[in-house]
Design a protein that fits this description.
The protein is α+β, with helices and mostly antiparallel strands. Helix content is 27%, strand content 24%. The chain contains 8 helices and 14 strands. Strands 9, 10, 11, 12, 13 and 14 form a 6-stranded antiparallel beta sheet that branches. The chain has a 4-stranded mixed beta sheet with strand order 5-6-7-8. The chain is elongated, with a radius of gyration of 22 Å. 40% of the residues are buried.
């Protein structure tokens, strides 16, 4: 059960080692400028492996529960499905339902743990294999795997790495489950945090903050909703931040250097490798400066 690329990576690994009786994904949605009806990546991967696909509009129905029961599954694997599943669905598989969650629970319960791990400046994160219950990421922990958060990681690059890590961890968990050696540990609820879904407003940068916080925010909201700042002509998007030495009123464009366009922060500065002006394509900072659409001394707010 999954929808985006994170879930597709997990499905790919499962399909190579196990008999997957079905894939459950969200319905096709319209995307892109042409608003073309587009299938979720999990559906695409499933069809490539000739795996039947279910795309229920609602999951809390008798009809959907009967569909799952008719498959007679040993276990359900959930990886970024995007919906809260009812207990009667989770308890249908003979050996239970297990989730690949992209954080080291109980830190980061919720929809956006990858993004918030970067935004909050964590140095490490990981994946948790959890036996699912009715709560939001509150189930018992089967196993965990950790990885470093690199200074250049975006939510996109970290998601790809965690998907691979999570797929491997789930294969290990299923092997232990089959052999009867999988152990479960209750979460410490007192240590739990919530990683809420991002909104478009989360993309706005606050240059009054220290440079490392600005960099974390910009990387955590890449690719969505994207790091943005106000310019007189309208909002611009900024990509590829690097903390650099520099000072000036927060938001002031200080210089064009090798690492990109340098912007002053509350402490030090951040250089952005790429810039996207209103209604324009994303370009290297040097190309934008050459077009004289931005000038040293301009202020981003």
């Amino acid at each position: 059960m999954g929808s985006p690329s994170f879930g597709a990576t997990v499905l790919e690994a499962l399909a190579e080692r196990h008999h997957v009786v079905a894939a459950v994904s969200q319905p096709d949605r319209r995307a892109g400028r042409g608003r073309k009806l587009t299938p979720p990546p999990v559906k695409v991967t499933a069809l490539e492996h000739d795996i039947p696909v279910l795309q229920p509009v609602a999951v809390r129905t008798d009809a959907f529960q009967r569909e799952i029961a008719a498959l007679e599954p040993d276990v359900a694997v959930v990886a970024a499905y995007g919906r809260i599943l009812p207990l009667r669905v989770l308890s249908t598989p003979r050996l239970g339902s297990y989730n690949v969650h992209a954080s080291l629970l109980p830190w980061g319960r919720g929809a956006a743990p990858i993004q918030w791990a970067i935004i909050e400046g964590l140095r490490r994160t990981g994946v948790t294999i959890m036996r699912m219950d009715e709560g939001m990421d509150t189930g018992d922990i089967a196993l965990q795997r950790s990885t470093e958060i690199r200074p250049t990681d975006t939510a996109g690059t970290l998601s790809e790495r965690l998907a691979t890590l999570g797929a491997d961890a789930m294969l290990d968990a299923l092997q232990q489950l089959a052999h009867g050696t999988l152990t479960l540990t209750p979460q410490q609820a007192s240590s739990a945090t919530v990683a809420r879904s991002l909104t478009k407003e989360d993309g706005w940068l606050d240059f009054a903050a220290p440079a490392h916080r600005v960099s974390c925010r910009a990387r955590g909201v890449d690719p969505w909703p994207g790091a943005r700042a106000h310019l007189e002509e309208g909002p611009i998007k900024l990509f590829g931040p690097t903390v650099t030495h520099g000072s000036g009123p927060p938001g002031t464009l200080l210089a064009l250097e090798e690492k990109g366009l340098q912007v002053a922060c509350g402490q030090e500065a951040v250089s952005f490798a790429e810039v996207q002006l209103p209604g324009r394509k994303r370009l290297p900072a040097a190309a934008v400066m050459a077009g004289r659409k931005l000038r040293i001394g301009d202020v981003l707010r």
